[in-house]
Amino acid sequence: MRSLVSLYLVIGLLLLGFGYFATGPCPNKNTDVVNDVVFVLTWPVELYGYVIKGSLSPDEWLHKQACEGGFGQHGDSQGTGNSEQTAPVPVQH
Asked: Which of 25, 29, 52, 64 has the most crowded CB, counting CB atoms within 10 A?
C-alpha cells in the first residue's frame, strides 16, 4: 500500500517537474505552494477533466499549472464558485 501511495505522489511530482522544465519558457512561474500541493494530490482528476474530457493537450495542461499560475483560485479574489448572490424569495401567506 505504501508503494502505491508513493508511486502516486512521485507521478504527481514528476508531472509538476515536467511542467516547469519541459514545456518551454516559463516567465511567470507558479509560486503558490498550496496550488502545487493540490495539483500533486489531484492530478488524475485534473488530467481527466482538462485533457481527456477538456480541450487542453498534456503539454498545455502542465504548462498552465507550472507557468501560468495553475488552475486553482487560491488567493484570488474572484473565487471559483457561484459568486452571484441570490436574494431570498419572499414567502406569501
From this structure: 64
User: Global pTM?
Assistant: 0.69
Provide the b/e sequence for 7-29 (b: ≥16 CB within 10 Å): eeeeebeebbebbbeebeeeeee
Which pLDDT tens digit goes with each residue over 44-76? Answer: 999 999 899 989 999 999 998 888 877 765 444
20 with 67: CB under 8 angstroms?
Answer: yes
Which residue in the block uniquely carries the three cell numbers 502505491? 4
Domain chopping of the chain, boundaries: 2-67
Residue 48, Ramachandran bin (φ over 0: left; ψ between -120 and 50: alpha; else beta):
alpha
